[in-house]
């Protein structure tokens, strides 16, 4: 019975890795949609397709977790691992939603040459790093990595403040495009929220390992 349970836990890890990879792809494609006008339509369509895959993956993982809970009677540590996975997939689903929001906004941004000059691309890279490492920390039961992800959210927050300052300066210099700069502020805010969700994932990893969660 325990061997079967371990196999299902391993499958849970694999499915979480797949869902995390989908989130990474959604973030990267949303950023490409924002910065590359020639590929905007193609990238937006890809992001929307990936979001659908993320939603389906959430349902699949939820079903697997329910099977583990109902059929295998997990002990305390295993129970924390499974319940943490259920919390994590909720955050990953929100990451997919926010990547889709970024892609949607990108269709209306008309100052892409300036978008590429500010730190929004750096926010995309930083949040992708957080998502990747938060999932890796769960799969590898790596408490130190999870804690580093939580701390790294400060980097994303600092980048958000920097982007806001850059965009305010652009509004002052180019007020006729002010509406589009405010669109970019919304994009930066979505990236900042993605960072928050990745931080949440890392905190649930910490709970799965230690039994403690910082609410």
Automatic annotation (TrEMBL):
Subcellular location: Cytoplasm
Domain of life of the native organism: Bacteria
Alphabetically ordered keywords of this record: Coiled coil, Cytoplasm, Phosphate transport, Transport
InterPro entries (alphabetical): PhoU, PhoU-like_sf, PhoU_dom
A GO biological process held by the record: intracellular phosphate ion homeostasis
Residue ranges of every copy of the PhoU domain listed in the record: 17-105, 121-205
Annotated Gene Ontology cellular component terms: cytoplasm
Name of the protein this chain belongs to: Phosphate-specific transport system accessory protein PhoU
Organism: Lactonifactor longoviformis DSM 17459
Lineage, opening ranks: Bacteria, Bacillati, Bacillota, Clostridia, Eubacteriales
């Amino acid at each position: 019975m325990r061997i079967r349970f371990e196999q299902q836990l391993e499958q849970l890890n694999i499915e979480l890795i797949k869902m995390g990879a989908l989130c990474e792809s959604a973030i990267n494609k949303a950023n490409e949609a924002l910065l590359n006008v020639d590929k905007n339509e193609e990238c937006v369509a890809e992001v929307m397709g990936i979001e659908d895959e993320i939603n389906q993956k959430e349902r699949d993982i939820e079903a697997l977790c329910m099977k583990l809970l109902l059929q295998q009677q997990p002990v305390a540590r295993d129970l924390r691992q499974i319940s943490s996975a259920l919390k994590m997939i909720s955050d990953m689903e929100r990451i997919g939603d926010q990547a889709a929001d970024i892609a949607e906004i990108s269709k209306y941004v008309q100052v892409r040459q300036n978008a590429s000059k500010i730190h929004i691309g750096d926010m995309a890279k930083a949040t992708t790093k957080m998502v990747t490492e938060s999932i890796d920390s769960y799969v590898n039961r790596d408490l130190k990595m999870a804690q580093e992800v939580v701390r790294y959210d400060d980097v994303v927050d600092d980048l958000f403040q920097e982007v806001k300052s850059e965009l305010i300066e652009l509004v002052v210099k180019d007020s006729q495009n002010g509406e589009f700069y405010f669109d970019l502020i919304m994009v930066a805010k979505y990236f900042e929220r993605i960072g928050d969700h990745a931080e949440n994932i890392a905190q649930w990893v910490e709970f799965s390992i230690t039994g403690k969660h910082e609410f």
